[in-house]
Write a structure and sequence with these properties.
alpha/beta, Rossmann fold, 9-stranded mixed beta sheet, two-stranded antiparallel sheet, 7 helices, 11 strands, globular, transferase
């Protein structure tokens, strides 16, 4: 099988490694089947799409909607590289799934308004799948509503004109969309289970997602939830697009 590519931007080694492990686990992939590039560590190498089955974009501490003058040089570089890659991905309708940061990145690439209107605190929310979502191969077999983990400072305030909305939540209307037939983004994290979320809370307690003194409360709240459906989206993506 041709490997999948994971594009990552987390600077903390333990967070980056935990994210990689989650994509391996829920994608049903061996390490040899998921090539990771940490964009925060250096420029994106030349990507020949023919070498891969598909591309994942993981979550990020970056926010697409931050004022340009407040973005670091690394963030500007990463955004330029991802935009250039998405030019090819969308043009070729190449399999792509961006989680959380993917909504802002793909949304802005496609002309959506991305801002802080529909930010959601870290925790579980109820995702509702619409009619188009129920007919989509990545959501096939999932219930019409399911719990998923979120935690984001920005979201799509408007759906890109080129996109099909697949799922929403009460607090964030754009939770999952598709561009063309094979290019996807989710606002929620399909790669997170409860322990992975607890780890993220510990890592990012001072990142402005919640008051740092409340980190333990957020961890306990997470441990009290049952989130076991979104991981099927990763497995469906791998199953559908794995190429020999």
């Amino acid at each position: 099988m041709k490997p999948f590519l994971l594009l990552a931007t987390r600077a903390e080694n333990h967070a980056a490694d935990a994210e990689y492990a989650s994509f391996l686990r829920f994608g049903g992939l061996a390490a040899s089947e998921l090539h990771r590039v940490r964009l925060e560590a250096g420029p994106l190498p030349e990507v020949d799409l023919a070498d891969y089955s598909g591309i994942f974009l993981g979550g990020s501490p970056f926010n697409s909607s931050d004022p340009q003058e407040l973005k670091t040089g690394i963030q500007h570089r990463v955004e330029r590289e991802l935009a250039a890659l998405l030019d090819r991905v969308v043009a070729e309708d190449f399999p792509f799934l961006g989680a959380c940061y993917g909504v802002g990145t793909l949304g802005r690439h496609q002309g959506a308004v991305v801002d802080t209107t529909y930010a959601e605190p870290i925790g579980a929310v109820e995702i509702t799948v619409n009619e188009d979502g129920a007919a989509d191969p990545l959501l096939a077999g999932l219930p019409s509503s399911f719990a998923a983990y979120v935690g984001h400072k920005e979201a799509c305030a408007t759906l890109p004109g080129s996109a099909v909305l697949l799922a929403s939540s009460a607090t964030c209307p754009v939770q999952m969309f598709r561009v063309r037939d094979n290019v996807y983004a989710t606002q929620f994290h399909p790669e997170l289970d409860v322990e992975a979320l607890v780890g993220r809370i510990g890592t990012y307690r001072h990142a402005g997602y919640f008051p740092p003194e409340q980190a333990e409360e957020y961890m306990e709240r997470a441990r009290a939830t049952v989130v076991d459906q979104p991981e099927a989206i990763l497995r469906a993506f791998v199953t559908r697009y794995a190429r020999r």
